[in-house]
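Now for a typical sample entry:
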Amino acid sequence: MLRSMSQALGALLRPHTPAGLPAAHTQHRRVRLGAQEVAYEFKRGQRRSIGLSIGPDGLRVRAPSWTPLAEVEALLQAKSAWVLEKLQRAREHAAARAAARTVWADDAALLFLGQHVRLRLEPAQRFSPPRLQAALAAAQPATLCLGLAGCASALQIRHTTQAWLRQQAQSVFNDRLAYFAPLLQVHPRRLQLSNARTRWGSASADGSIRLNWRLIHLELPLIDYVVVHELCHLRHMNHSAPFWSLVASVLPDHAQRRQALRRAVLPPLDADV
């Protein structure tokens, strides 16, 4: 008797899935939004409302277990303009990332200070440090000469090139810090390079500045924005009005630079050391 009552009580407390609705698991569905047919990943679960998200893998829809599918698709129709715009942006970003990927081979292109540089292996200069050779003509890219054998592996080319890029980043960042620090009346104590995935830089109360070395791929005005941003944090450890006023005192166009930085696409990190 006690066992029967326990089983009955357990059944009452168990989460209920309405008849005709699938249990919580991931489905792959399609819906027509305007002139496009859109694939999406659909999953029910314990939540209060329908959620839409768009990432590198496309559209994902999460809904409460009790929500009818018709209501889910009605919401997709109502949000169709937003969904299609976000999907287009995601496709464009994925294409830009693919185009930015570095091929670690002889005669491949590399992004340095916003310009394409051509990699060239020089077996005759084995063990010599990399050197940047100016373009012979205006329409041609500069060349980064690497003292590596013609049979060098992609890993060897990558290690050698990125070591050079880090050296350049250290030099360029130090120069820009030395230029802007007096203008902002701050005194950075030291510079450290970072390899963060999503953060360009940071500043500490002790005067330390950390800058992502991968900024060296970008043009100098964007590097300057990050440098100034972090230097201003040495006076204002926040993003208050006085902070932005200080940024504007040396970079009046900081808002435009910030937007350009958000749109910047770097070589994918999975291709990096």
